[in-house]
Amino acid sequence: MLARIDMAQDGERLDRALAKLLPEFSRSYLAKLIDDGRVRIDGARAEKSSLRVAAGQSVEIDVPPPAESPLVSQDLPLKILYDGDDIVVVDKPPGLVVHPAAGHADRTLVNALLFHVKNLSGIGGELRPGIVHRLDKDTSGVMVIAKTDAAHRALAAEWRNAKKEYLAIVYGKPKKDRGTIDAPIGRDPRNRKRMAVVRNGREAITDYEVVETLRYVTLVRCTLRTGRTHQIRVHLKHFGHPIVGDPLYSGPQWRGIPDKRAQKTIANFPRQALHAFRLTLPDGRTFEAPMPGDMASLLQALRA
């Protein structure tokens, strides 16, 4: 593949210039081609992505053929909320890993998507086709998956402007019915498998609103302004109201509940009670997934 640097790219970094000339490829993918020695400028190998280019230079890009995916399609149950030309939206059940990783070679959301959906974007790589964002294994709810590379790039570029709303069942009752948790999040220095509110962490902001108050727990709606790993789980723990059933951030707080029936009901809940119930994309399209049966049953049992 050949491209020529024009005046609009004169003086720019090579990877940035190529991303403008070849919009069908992401900048990160082009940078990888440069690192792999697959890009030549005026016949000479381009040594690094930060190389400044000049108008009139000829660029040759050796684009490798797509690698055969090691993934297999699997007929796993999948609730599809929307299936369009550009995206597919699903209601991910709890307990389902999003994509293959260590310890989860198959039976993931991606394996199910390969069975139920005709096309997926290739930008996510061989193991994550179409995956724009993720939910934790035991978090349920709305997920959007890109079916085309153009849709994937557009979603990734504007993802900060998507509105992500969650429902969570937490211990106790917040003092205020609504508010904002603004606390930076980073790796927990005492346990590298967890995240925590730390002084030098990345900015993290969560808005919350009380939906229903019961005797020992509260149903809250959380809206993300940022998207840090485990953000809602970490923020609610920091706020003093960890999510029921969260194995990393709540612990056996049910032991302090004097009502033995309520104590047993909460102790037996098998996952973090967190559900992504509404997602509004930057283009205004909104998708909702009703509260899953396990969370609804938990609330009903505690109401009784």
> Which segments are poorly predicted (pLDDT under 50) over 5 or more consecutive residues?
none
Q: What is the CATH class of the largest domain?
A: Alpha Beta
Number of helices: 7
Write down the domain tally: 3
If classified by CATH, what would the architecture of the largest domain be? 2-Layer Sandwich
Tell me the structural class.
alpha+beta
Q: Give the amount of beta strand, in percent.
A: 25-35%
Major sheet description: 9 strands, mixed
Helix-strand sequence: EHHEEEEEHEHEEEEEEHHEEH
Folded structure, characterized:
There is one protein chain. The chain has 304 residues and is α+β, with helices and mostly antiparallel strands. The chain folds into three domains: 60 residues, RNA-binding S4 domain (Structural Genomics Hypothetical 15.5 Kd Protein In mrcA-pckA Intergenic Region, Chain A), CATH 3.10.290; 80 residues, Pseudouridine synthase (2-Layer Sandwich), CATH 3.30.2350.10; 142 residues, Pseudouridine synthase (2-Layer Sandwich), CATH 3.30.2350. Helices cover 20% and strands 25% of the residues. Strands 5, 6, 7, 8, 9, 12, 13, 14 and 15 form a nine-stranded mixed beta sheet that branches. The chain has a four-stranded antiparallel beta sheet with strand order 1-4-2-3. Strand 14 and strand 15 form a beta hairpin. Helix 1 crosses helix 2. It is elongated, with a radius of gyration of 23 Å.
